[in-house]
Design goal:
Blueprint lengths: L2 H14 L8 E2 L1 H8 L3 H13 L3 E3 L5 E3 L4 H25 L2 H13 L1 H6 L2 H19 L2 H24 L3 H16 L3 H11 L5 H9 L9
Antiparallel strand pairs: 1-3, 2-3
Length: 219
């Protein structure tokens, strides 16, 4: 793997895991020291992050983690919800019996996280559940696009879900997705996965979440 690719992966992970929040600077000097490289591979990585909308240039030079305004968030969130629904539909149609069992196991394993209301544990359990779905969808390009959008909206979704006590609701949606897949009902699986992204259905639910966001996160 090229050095610039490794730098990209580290910064992308930091954004996804909320170690870097919208508006935070992406420090070129620190990255040069961390990886023991010149400025060139660091800037190559940052250019790639810019191309994917994860970071933005600022007028005085340098880059920050991109902020999104209400209109941008609504557009991305709606599309992400539809892609999650499509992934669940494909998974329902294409999963093997062993993969369905793995999905049931992932759901069962997350119950203790929900009972503890463990936000960090839920992030991990949630992704474990969804990764089984993505694998079952047999479409790596769909998975790649979903993960890119999840990274882009990570700070916004997780802040809102933490504030609204969303963990138990999300767990219930996982149960609906699992039930639909075990019953081999692709339409029900898609509907549950789309609704799972927000506490409410469609744009009204997204707007409810966005109005609870700190203004510092918004562009």
């Amino acid at each position: 793997m090229k050095v610039s690719d490794r730098i990209y992966s580290v910064v992308e992970r930091q954004i996804s895991q909320r170690e870097l929040l919208p508006g935070d600077p992406v420090d070129e000097e620190n990255l040069m020291i961390q990886f023991g490289v010149s400025r060139t591979p660091v800037r190559e990585a940052i250019l790639r992050l810019k191309a994917e909308g994860l970071v933005s240039s600022i007028s005085r030079g340098g880059a920050i983690v991109s902020k999104m305004d209400f209109a941008q968030l609504l557009s991305v969130w709606e599309l992400l919800a539809e892609l999650e629904g499509l992934s669940a539909r494909y998974a329902c149609e294409r999963m093997t019996s062993k993969e369905r069992e793995a999905l049931a196991d992932a759901h069962k394993a997350s119950r203790s996280v929900v009972e503890r209301n463990d936000a960090l544990g839920w992030q991990q359990a949630n992704m474990a559940f969804h990764e089984v779905l993505y694998a079952g969808s047999r479409n790596p390009y769909l998975r790649q696009e979903i993960l890119r959008m999840r990274t882009r909206t990570s700070a916004y979704r997780n802040h809102s879900f933490d504030a609204m006590g969303y963990i138990s609701k999300a767990y219930q949606y996982h149960g609906l997705i699992l039930q639909a897949i075990l019953e081999q009902d692709p339409s029900a699986a898609a509907k549950a996965a789309t609704a799972h992204l927000t506490p409410g259905e469609g744009a009204p639910g997204v707007m409810e979440i966005m109005h609870k966001l700190p203004k510092a996160l918004l562009g």
